[in-house]
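Structure first, sequence second, as always.
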């Protein structure tokens, strides 16, 4: 059921009124909420699988691995560590402030808005919610209307777990999203495209709300001349075509040493067939494009590449009625092609070749900073060169996308690919205000010696401070 504007405003008011109560909750209280959330997710495991099957024919095992497991893992990690994260963090005191102590206190930011996309609706919604709840916030969630069946399951789980003045799920399309963004929030997390990210950031600026943006982009994969080519092909085939390529950190394109290109392509095709058979259309392991609009967008990218003399090296078969696009490899990509500029977010993989590593690095740096960068190489010097001479939200070496799965690592983008970090303690901190607290312990403070009126003696003390401290 789509949320009415009246319900939206009333809910926002209740969430706002409950901020002061929730920010004072203990680690035990927050942990109990997380345990209840975990219980309700697992109780609805079958319904989640059914909903995602209806939304875009996701394989049940893939749902377990990419949707449910990451959330359960995040909850377990947070439950184990939250008490430690919430403790005041004492910091050192400089000599010039003797007689005092200082510490950092993490407090909830307040009312948080979480806007999540359709590609991993359970994963991205609930991992974000876990981070926000662990910090003691009230939360409004707006899941994507594109995966309608799954959004209804999200709402069901939230209502079973939380009171409506703690967490509330708003259902609806872009019209309700526009109304939500006019309301005042203390923090907004948005996961989606850079285009919509700019709209969210602009809306947040009206209330000077802080933002976390995870925006994707064109994540490159560099294959060095010194490499285990079979391993690279196997892992890239898996990472690119899981979820039908509809992954914000999927390898968007390949940069490969020219001498290895032909051999790599043969291996890549071999592994694609191992994953999804010679006929992916009949494979139970290969899900679908989420809707007709996205199908037509992806089809347009392929046709535009062909118009600009690009070649389909493998795949290319399509069925609009089934929203099916075969794993497709493109070569001879023109810089005039749309696929050269736009994030693909689908089962299409462009291949670019280079002669020297400098060429690959320059290619990456001539584009917007990506959310992820993948390097396949045995050469430590070359690996370090790529890491040090490029900028990205995260890096995987000799694997792909798995940095997201390590909850000890901060996950997020840079500039066009996003801002802020999530997961584990980094997510807790992202949804917290790190309040600096200074406490004078004794009656006399060193600063008493240097307040006006300034004398020659005080000038000497100040000069000593500048020279030695």
């Amino acid at each position: 059921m789509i949320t009415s504007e009246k319900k939206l405003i009333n809910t926002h008011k209740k969430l706002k009124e409950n901020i002061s109560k929730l920010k004072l909750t203990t680690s035990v209280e927050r942990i109990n909420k997380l345990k209840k959330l975990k219980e309700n997710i697992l109780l609805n495991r079958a319904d989640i699988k059914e909903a995602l099957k209806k939304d875009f024919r996701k394989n049940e095992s893939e749902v377990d691995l990419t949707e449910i497991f990451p959330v359960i893992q995040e909850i377990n990690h947070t439950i184990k560590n939250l008490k430690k994260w919430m403790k005041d963090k004492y910091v050192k005191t400089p000599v010039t402030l003797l007689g005092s102590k200082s510490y950092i206190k993490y407090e909830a930011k307040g009312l948080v808005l979480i806007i999540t996309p359709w590609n991993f609706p359970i994963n991205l919604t609930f991992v974000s919610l876990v981070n926000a709840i662990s910090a003691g916030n009230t939360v409004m969630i707006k899941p994507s209307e594109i995966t309608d069946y799954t959004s209804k399951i999200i709402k069901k789980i939230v209502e079973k777990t939380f009171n409506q003045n703690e967490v509330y799920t708003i259902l609806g399309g872009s019209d309700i999203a526009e109304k939500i963004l006019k309301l005042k929030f203390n923090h907004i997390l948005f996961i989606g495209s850079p285009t919509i990210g700019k709209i969210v950031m602009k809306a947040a600026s009206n209330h000077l709300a802080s933002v976390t943006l995870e925006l994707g982009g064109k994540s490159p994969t560099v294959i060095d001349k010194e490499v285990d080519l079979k391993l690279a092909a196997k892992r890239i085939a898996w990472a690119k075509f899981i979820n039908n390529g509809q992954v914000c950190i999927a390898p968007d394109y390949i940069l490969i040493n020219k001498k290895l290109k032909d051999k790599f392509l043969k291996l890549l095709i071999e592994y694609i067939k191992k994953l999804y058979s010679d006929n992916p259309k009949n494979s139970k392991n290969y899900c679908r494009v989420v809707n007709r609009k996205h199908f037509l967008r992806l089809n347009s990218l392929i046709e535009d590449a062909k118009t600009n003399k690009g070649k389909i090296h493998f795949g290319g078969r399509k069925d609009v009625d089934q929203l099916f696009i075969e794993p497709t490899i493109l070569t001879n990509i023109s810089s005039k092609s749309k696929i050269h500029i736009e994030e693909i977010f689908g089962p299409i993989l462009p291949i670019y070749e280079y002669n020297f590593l400098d060429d690959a690095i320059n290619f990456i740096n001539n584009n917007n900073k990506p959310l992820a960068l993948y390097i396949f190489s045995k050469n430590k010097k070359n690996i370090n060169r790529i890491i040090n001479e490029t900028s990205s939200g995260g890096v995987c070496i000799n694997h792909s996308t798995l940095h997201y799965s390590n909850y000890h690592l901060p996950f997020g983008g840079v500039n066009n690919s996003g801002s802020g970090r999530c997961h584990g303690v980094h997510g807790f901190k992202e949804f917290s205000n790190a309040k600096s607290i200074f406490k004078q312990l004794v009656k006399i403070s060193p600063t008493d010696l240097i307040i006006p009126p300034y004398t020659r003696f005080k000038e000497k003390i100040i000069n000593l401070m500048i020279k030695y401290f």
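Margin note: The first helix runs from residue 5 to 17.
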